[in-house]
Amino acid sequence: MRMWLRGWLVAGTSVALAAGGAPAGAVVTPDHGPTAGGTVISLSVPGGRLVSLSAGEEHSLALDDLGRVYSWGNGSLGQLGNGQADLQATPTAIEAVGVLSGRGITQISAGAYHSLALDDEGKVYAWGQGASGQLGNGQTGTELSPVAVDASGVLSGKTITQIAAGREHSLALDDEGRVYAWGRGASGQLGNGQTGTELSPVAVDASGALSGKTITQIATDSTMSMALDDEGRVYTWGDHEMLGIDTGQAENVPIPVAVDTSGVLSGKTITQIAAGRGHSLALDDEGMVYAWGWGGPGQLGTGQDESHRIPVAVDTSGVLSGKTITQIAAGTYHSLALDDAGRIYGWGWGGSGQLGTGQEGGYLSPVAVDTSGAMAGATITQIAAGSYHSLALDEDESRAYAWGAGRYGRLGDGQVQSHPSPVAVNLPSPMLMQVFFGDVEAASVTPVAPGALQVTSPPHPSGLVDIRVLGNGAELISFPDGFAFGTSPAVTLHPADATGDTAAVVILTAAANADEAPAASWQRLEDGHWVTVLDDVSATTENLTTTTTLTTTIPDADSAATYRAVFTNPLGEAITATATLSQASVVAPELEPAPEPSPGESGMPGESGESGESGESGESGESGEGQDLPTTGASLLYWLTLAATALALGAGLTLAAKRQRTGTEAD
């Protein structure tokens, strides 16, 4: 199934992704489903969602979440980075070739006539005008395509985390909070204690105000540079008119100094800074804005057209009353602010419509940017101020807006006319989106939001498959092993223990089911290891359940055999409980007791041989009445033998007596 999705695709170019497939933020939910297909999947696809904008003198830049850079406006000095020195009235992609091949760009900054980009490995690239060394490549020529900033000197081994492009110089911040600069330094804007030009990066002086400080943010424009530390303090260097200090002297400062905090900044924690043409802005952690520098056209927002060497508060008595500002931007003689509800305000010079009020005129205090037209209903997440134009980004909807001077096509609406109210940036044509599960195309693909697809899985054999997302036939991203078709096996019948005589035949049975019927095998435990049994094994499948049997025999009396069944499919395995086969235990037979004797039959026979008599006198054995002796299997024989012996003894005694009497009589 194919579906058109508005996004940013470069025809004929491929997107280079880091090893491992999908970039950060890419999500598949759920990530499994039946082999029959029909699972509705939410696919978060970083493939066209705009994440950043930057406005220069006469050109603009945009960055998407796949690390691709787009440019439009005046490219006569190569600032568009597209290999041409021409004008582009709509966004075009900078090809990921040359030094950008395989790089994922994470940050962009548009200067007056040059541009900077930062990749995900902390490397910096530049293009455009380089006459003052602002490209940082050790040269002074113009570059129509990106070149690498020289990393053989102070940047050797450094990981850059932030960049800022000024009019004729550039700044970079590393992951340890140190600042570097290159380009024109006539006003001391490089901060290295010198006022010369540097064709390659140099370190900003950290022996004075920056000693022991960790810088977290940088900003620059024409002849001044700014830095913010992790404790919310601001530092500046360069043109003395914009430093935020009052030295009483007209000398530029080529090393960082701390901005005055004795006035409105007393006790404030600054969270954001911005540098414009002749003025500076700062935002505190309570959403209040401060400004200093030249105030002629009203860019300080105080309600006056006066300049201030030290910070003053921007007027909050009008449209900013009760508002919490979350972002600031400074352009050429105008300023912008964004509040926490996504609404934009502007002040200063507005002769080209750059304040976005619907009128071409300036304001000394903040006014609201018009939201009745193209931006109706939009929630703005980012702003940028150029020389005579402004930009805004609705990141949730991946829509960009522009207003102000339209010459050279810098508004990106396909025109070269100025607009005093926001217009939509003319994004590239929608992409034809396709999603594949392995080699099988999705049953349906439905865009539900920028960078978000709703996809229906197709029928597919069980197992893990890659998900590939294509735009206009070119692969945008992939999710290795992104979806599991089917379920792993589950045992439904375990084999049972068995006993019997040696060599008796036993049939063990086990069963398991899964979304796709699993394969079965049997194993026997031998010397502590499981060994697969190959003979006398069978298996049948019905209703996705596999039933398997093993025919075997009872082992010898001095041993036992232990077996188990194993069920597998592409998603996993299930192992049954063990079954042990052994000899039946030898149990002594239980002897049945002799019948109970009748009354009078349990006495010991008397000498006379008559039953029922006991005792020497031959009298009745009354002493045994009610006390019959227990009879066992051997007692009867014992008493019979004893009786026979007694009879024989009695007969012998009688015969001897007779002989004695006969002998006497003869005498």
From TrEMBL:
It comes from Salana multivorans. The chain crosses the membrane at residues 636-657. Keywords: Membrane, Repeat, Signal, Transmembrane, Transmembrane helix. Residues 156-427 form the RCC1-like domain. Residues 1-18 form the signal peptide. Gene3D superfamilies: Regulator of chromosome condensation 1/beta-lactamase-inhibitor protein II (2.130.10.30). This is Alpha-tubulin suppressor-like RCC1 family protein. It comes from the Bacteria. Residues 589-631 are annotated as: Disordered. Residues 599-608 have a biased composition (Low complexity).
